[in-house]
Amino acid sequence: MPWIKESDCVACGLCVDNCPVKAISMIEKKAIIEFEKCIRCGRCHDICPRDAVRHDGERVPEEVEENIDWVNNLMENYSTEDEKNAFIQRMKNFFNKEKKVIAETLDRLESY
Ligand code: SF4
Ligand code: SF4
Q1: Atom 2 of ligand 2, residue of closest alpha carbon
Q2: Residues 44 and 74 occupy one common structural domain
Q3: Domain that holds residue 68
Q4: How many angstroms separate the alpha carbon of residue 48 from the centre of ligand 1?
Q5: pTM
Q6: Whose CA is nearest to atom 8 of ligand 2?
Q7: 54-112, pLDDT tens digit by residue?
Q8: Are residues 67 and 47 in the same domain?
Q9: How far is Cα 62 from Cα 44, in angstroms, rounded to an integer?
Q10: 40 alpha carbon – ligand 2 mean position (Å)
Q11: In what helix (H) or strand (E) does residue 14 lie, and over which residues does it extend?
Q12: Are residues 38 and 66 in the same domain?
């Protein structure tokens, strides 16, 4: 999934004009992708003169931090060690389930 690094976007509008499904808008002189509309064609990435359209893989550390922040915020609802331990186990179960869904999806895509 492409994303736009705001600090590198110079609002030239090339990506907006070339997106085949009109998934990119210019808001306050920065290009923004509407992820629900994006069909992952990669055209915006190829056309951007400033390399502002970035690959998804670069967001991994950021998304890990978001997950950890989420867990830490929810943890504040628990006070005893037992409650916290049970909560962490539930969160591990949740992330393991997500991992399994991704792994099985990748397996299925191998046959395409
Ligand atoms: S092509 Fe690149 S620099 Fe131009 S508006 Fe799109 S993201 Fe910004
Ligand atoms: S990847 Fe394709 S569909 Fe998605 S925002 Fe870029 S140009 Fe539009």
Answers
A1: 41
A2: no
A3: 59-110
A4: 5
A5: 0.79
A6: 19
A7: 988 888 999 999 999 999 999 999 999 999 999 999 999 999 999 999 999 999 999 99
A8: no
A9: 22
A10: 5
A11: helix 14-18
A12: no
